[in-house]
Design goal:
- The protein is of the alpha+beta class and about 400 residues long.
- Helices cover about 40% and strands about 10% of the residues.
- A hairpin with a 3-residue loop joins β9 and β10.
Length: about 400
């Protein structure tokens, strides 16, 4: 009897050892594979084609109303911002209005552009990808999910330690993988480009210059990179990469290899003599874009939370209207009023509006003058007569 017990114990010990060895081998193999993990590489672009890619000019054909431009700005603020922006979409979906010809439509269908920053970028990108299907599962898949807890759990899991110690893989890469698993399902900007929804502009902050970087093909043209192959989860990770908590998201910069040239109309902003108006932020943005043209000098672009540059998302709206060819009037359309040898140009306005010859900030009975130091100012006729 004792011999049988000893034999059974030895067999159990052998099985236990085999199980431990197999498990140890599995863990070692997983760690080795994790150590080989690296960040996704945004592919280079051979040449720039302004008629292709995910950009404003190629999305206009999907706009339901050609006479109005409706832009939503989703600000940052973590899950609360994502939930608030989702509530805005729900409200616009439930509001119906009647058009001038008697047709009824939802206000949500009138939205042409959505800018998203940090937490707001998740809702914006998800709506651009899924459309109305978003309202069926977004709450369960993302809003009511403990995303932060899952990120912490993955970071504390020894299976991910080797990858996190890698020089080419960081916490934001792990976060992007989680976002892809629970929300985006491997979708890229090519999937957004094939859809019929509004133009989605997710923005991040260039940690080197502190400037905004929008995930649009017009921006990636300067980098000589193809945005269509960039995962949406990576854009969301870059837009929400809180410094110190998450690592920067790195993009390869191939600037100078695709024969990209700045559009001629941009020179009107960069030249003090032909500038449509003093626009320091526009000039700064153009200079930041020019810094990307030299891929040898700046081979990598490191991105962090977009809220550092524009947490409200409004600079994306203003910058989009300022830097889109659609809103750039030719030099011959600039209005100048000479006064004391100086001139003042009218501000940029949507060309659909009827031009009245009076700038929006100028009231009847006032004249408009400007100087390079103080910009534009209005002086009433009454004050001029009293001073004379």
């Amino acid at each position: 009897m004792l011999a049988l017990v000893r034999r059974a114990a030895s067999v159990a010990l052998v099985h236990c050892r085999r199980h431990v060895v197999a498990r140890f081998a599995f863990i070692c193999g997983a760690l080795v594979l994790a150590g080989c993990a690296s960040r996704p590489i945004n592919p280079p672009l051979d040449h720039v084609d302004l008629t292709k890619g995910y950009r404003f000019d190629t999305r206009q054909s999907h706009f339901m109303d050609k006479d109005d431009l409706v832009i939503l700005a989703f600000s940052g603020g973590g899950t609360r911002a994502a939930a608030f922006s989702y509530g805005v979409l729900e409200a616009l979906r439930n509001i119906e209005v009647q058009g001038p010809k008697g047709q009824r439509f939802r206000l949500l269908d009138e939205v042409n552009v959505i800018t998203g920053v940090s937490g707001g970028s998740f809702t914006a990108l998800a709506y651009g990808l899924y459309g109305d299907k978003l309202f069926d599962s977004y709450e369960q898949r993302f809003l009511k999910r403990d995303v932060e807890g899952e990120l912490l759990s993955r970071a504390l899991n020894p299976m991910h330690w080797s990858a996190l110690w890698s020089k080419t893989y960081g916490r934001s890469e792990m976060a992007a993988q989680l976002y892809d698993d629970i929300l985006f399902n491997g979708a890229t900007f090519a999937d957004l480009n094939r859809g019929s929804g509004p133009l989605i502009i997710a923005t991040a902050t260039d940690i080197t210059t502190g400037s905004r970087l929008a995930f649009l093909q017009s921006t990636f043209d300067v980098l000589c990179s193809d945005l269509n192959q960039v995962p949406l989860s990576r854009a969301a990770a870059a837009s929400s990469a809180v410094p110190l908590v998450l690592s920067p998201v790195t993009l390869n910069n191939y600037g100078g290899t695709c024969n990209f040239m700045m559009p001629p109309w941009m020179s009107y902003f960069a030249n003090d003599k032909t500038s449509i108006r003093p626009a320091e932020r526009a000039l700064r943005h153009l200079k930041d874009l020019e810094s990307y043209e030299d891929g040898v000098e700046r081979p990598y672009i490191h991105l962090v939370d977009g809220g550092l540059a524009d947490n409200l998302g409004m600079r994306g709206v203003l910058g989009h209207s300022r830097c889109s060819r659609r809103f750039a009037p030719p030099v011959s359309k600039r209005r100048s009023i000479p006064r004391g040898g100086s001139s003042c140009s009218s501000s940029i306005r949507c060309p659909r509006r009827r031009r009245t010859g009076i700038a929006p900030s100028v009231l009847p009975g006032t004249s408009r003058s400007c100087s390079r130091q103080r910009g534009c100012r209005s002086t009433t006729s009454r004050s001029r007569r009293s001073s004379s």
